[in-house]
């Protein structure tokens, strides 16, 4: 006889709620080159970030820098630049996406005792259904959302010296991957704005 793992639907729902309430940016890991003059940076190149989701992160950095009034050269077709001076920019931003998990939805089934049958969970797409509502007209089925998460490390190199002048790492967990990326990049921008007054 096959044994089925069971989980209380109340406990699962409680766990999902707690996870969402605790979601957010991790502690800042900002490191800045002492006495570097960020005011000298007028134009930057943004390279493609390595890792899954790297292009999405690079594009969001470009969007936010342009919105902040900074000149941007799009080099998201490349992970590395051999000659920084050939770019005609003051700084280069690059980095890596350490974690990239888009949100997902699971169709779960419960038995007559309202316990989740963990061997009957199925990934699905579509609209989220609240756990208290039966999914797709099935009495024993509910849909749960699994939040998205992203973790990114970024750095800025001074184009003329090749020195790293700023470095930061951020993580975020949210309801969708685009929002998670936007919030991580916004945290980067805010950490730079402390030193780089030209950021609007």
Features:
200 residues; alpha+beta; 3-stranded antiparallel sheet; 11 strands
Distance between the termini: 65 Å
Oligomer: single chain
By DSSP, the count of extended strands is: 11
N-to-C order of helices and strands: EHEEHEEEEEEEEH
Total individual domains? 2
Output the structural class. alpha+beta
Strand content: 25-35%
Q: What can you see in these coordinates?
A:
Helix content is 22%, strand content 33%. It has 200 residues and is of the alpha+beta class. It has 2 domains: 6-20 and 104-146, no CATH class; 35-99 and 149-193, ABC-type transport auxiliary lipoprotein component (Rossmann fold, 3-Layer(aba) Sandwich), CATH 3.40.50.10610. Residues 1-23 and 127-137 have low confidence and may be disordered.
């Amino acid at each position: 006889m096959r044994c089925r793992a069971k989980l209380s639907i109340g406990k699962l729902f409680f766990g999902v709620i707690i996870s969402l309430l605790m979601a957010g940016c991790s502690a800042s890991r900002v490191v800045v080159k002492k006495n570097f003059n960020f005011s000298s940076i007028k134009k930057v190149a943004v390279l493609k970030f390595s890792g899954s989701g790297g292009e999405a992160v690079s594009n969001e950095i470009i969007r936010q820098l342009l919105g902040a009034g900074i000149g941007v050269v799009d080099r998201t077709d490349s992970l590395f630049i051999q000659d920084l001076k050939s770019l005609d920019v003051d700084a280069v931003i690059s980095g890596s996406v350490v974690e990239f998990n888009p949100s997902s939805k699971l169709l779960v089934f419960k038995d007559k005792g309202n316990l989740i049958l963990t061997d009957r969970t199925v990934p699905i797409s579509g609209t989220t259904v609240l756990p208290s509502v039966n999914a797709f007209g099935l009495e024993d089925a509910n849909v749960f959302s699994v939040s998205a998460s992203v973790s990114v490390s970024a750095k800025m190199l001074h184009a003329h010296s090749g020195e790293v002048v700023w470095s930061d790492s951020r993580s975020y967990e949210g309801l969708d991957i685009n929002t998670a990326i936007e919030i991580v990049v916004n945290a980067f921008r805010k950490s730079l704005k402390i030193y780089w007054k030209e950021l609007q």
